[in-house]
Design a protein that fits this description.
Elements (H helix, E strand, L loop, with lengths): L12 E7 L5 H14 L5 E4 L13 E2 H4 L2 H8 L3 H13 L2 H11 L5 E5 L4 H5 L2 H11 L4 E8 L6 H18 L3 E6 L7 H8 L1 H15 L6 H17 L3 E4 L8 H56 L7 H16 L38
Helix pairs in contact: 3-4, 4-7, 8-11, 9-10, 10-11
Bound molecules: guanosine-5'-diphosphate and magnesium ion (MG).
The site of magnesium ion has 5 residues, from helix 1.
Subcellular location: Cytoplasm; Nucleus
EC number: 3.6.5.-
GO molecular function, one term: GTP binding
């Protein structure tokens, strides 16, 4: 419930790691795990990558214990990506149980960390990823750590693609966001900071490239990038950036400082929006209930006039009220967990307004 947000007791921060394949998400989780262990504050870790072969940390909840990704591929005749996506979908059907476990541990841990599948789009563009993100974010202060492979993003065009991707995730989740420039042991992220702070220096870098790529007229790509970088300039404002090395441990302290700031942002910006959405949803539900009730009563009236000839009160009116009261119990049955309204908490889908689209899991198209 909404009141939980203002509980006296401090809730754990949830850190969701997101990033391109090979950016170092898993290594980063291992590093922050080691850092927190050293501080005698072991985190609670969820591994959501069904295809990882070796985890460098002990996950408290591991998707691989719930679904066998190889079996899923075989059974549904899927390729690797379809297999990972389907495994994640199947796991999401159990996410209510995961949340219950997290709630149980909430008083004893300070950090909950999510490691996501290698391929970024499996988490960021799937219904499961959105359900998981929104479910944790409506229960705990949640922060997205967007991991960037710094050495591999030093070309201006690659840098901008990566930033646009980050930008789209920020607007989709609306959660506090930390750009984590990883692998700074190989290359410093100073160039990135400079490009983000000084628009002209990025344009210069682009122009330099252009001279290398094609001498003469401005290419389509670079004119597109020029205008896109103006959009990004807005996105950079107020964004938290840290440079880290998941291998050496550099910058991890700064990362946790950024998490603290992001937590405040969550309380200040996300929670009010969450409450607003909850109130709106309650209002919609109330109106819907009232309308259905009115319609049903009207039907009953018509029906009564038509056929009720017996003495006294029409017993069918009571029948109707009974059904209305029993309805909540019906929901407790054999439900489809993938429908977020069954998550057992005020589920607010902030990323896909209006509240549509997740629906019945059985209607999902099979990936493949
Ligand atoms: N040099 C260096 N290599 C890293 C760092 N972090 C990760 N790597 C390497 O990057 C590769 C991909 O890392 P992984 O954590 O599996 O990436 P994921 O797919 O995002 O989970 C591995 O070979 C890691 O050893 C880092 O900070 N510095
Ligand atoms: Mg990984």
């Amino acid at each position: 419930m909404a009141e939980n947000m203002t509980n006296e007791q401090r809730k754990p921060s949830v850190i969701i790691t997101i990033g391109m394949a090979g950016s170092g998400k898993t290594t980063f989780v291992q590093r922050i795990n080691a850092h927190l262990h050293a501080q005698q504050k072991p985190p609670y870790i969820l591994n959501l990558d069904p295809a990882v072969t070796q985890l460098p940390f002990d996950a408290n909840i591991d998707i691989r214990d719930t679904v066998d990704y190889a079996q899923v591929m075989k059974q549904y005749k899927l390729g690797p990506n379809g297999g990972i996506l389907t495994a994640l979908n199947l796991f999401t059907t159990k996410f209510e149980q995961v949340l219950a476990l997290l709630e149980k541990r909430a008083s004893t841990v300070e950090n909950i960390i999510l490691d996501t599948p290698g391929q970024i789009e499996i988490f960021t563009w799937s219904a499961s990823g959105a359900i998981i993100t929104d479910a944790v974010a409506s229960s705990f202060p949640t922060v997205v750590a967007y991991i960037i492979d710094t050495p591999r993003t030093s070309a201006p065009a690659t840098f901008m693609s990566n930033m646009l991707y980050a930008c789209s995730i920020l607007y989709k989740t609306r959660l506090p966001f930390i750009l984590v420039f990883n692998k700074t042991d190989v290359q410093s992220h100073d160039f990135a900071l400079e490009w983000m702070e000084d628009f002209e220096s990025f344009q210069e870098a682009l122009a330099d490239r252009e001279r290398l790529d094609a001498d003469g007229e401005q290419t389509y790509m670079s004119s597109l990038m020029n205008s896109m970088s103006l959009v990004l300039d807005e996105f950079y404002k107020g964004l938290k950036c840290v440079g880290v090395s998941a291998v050496t441990g550099a910058g991890i302290k700064e990362f946790f400082t950024a998490v603290e700031e992001a937590r405040e942002e969550y309380e200040k910006e996300y929670v009010p929006e969450l409450k607003r959405m909850m109130a709106e949803r309650e209002k919609t539900l109330e109106t819907f209930k009232q309308e259905s009730l009115n319609a049903a009563m009207k039907d009953l009236e018509v029906d009564k006039k038509k056929t009720w000839t017996g003495p006294g009160k029409d017993p069918r009116a009571d029948q109707f009220m009974d059904v209305e009261e029993e309805n909540p119990d019906d929901d407790d049955g054999d439900e489809t967990y993938l429908d977020p309204t069954h998550l057992g908490r005020p589920y607010i889908n902030l990323s896909q307004q209006p509240q549509k689209g997740y629906g019945d899991a059985s209607k999902w198209p099979r990936p493949g």
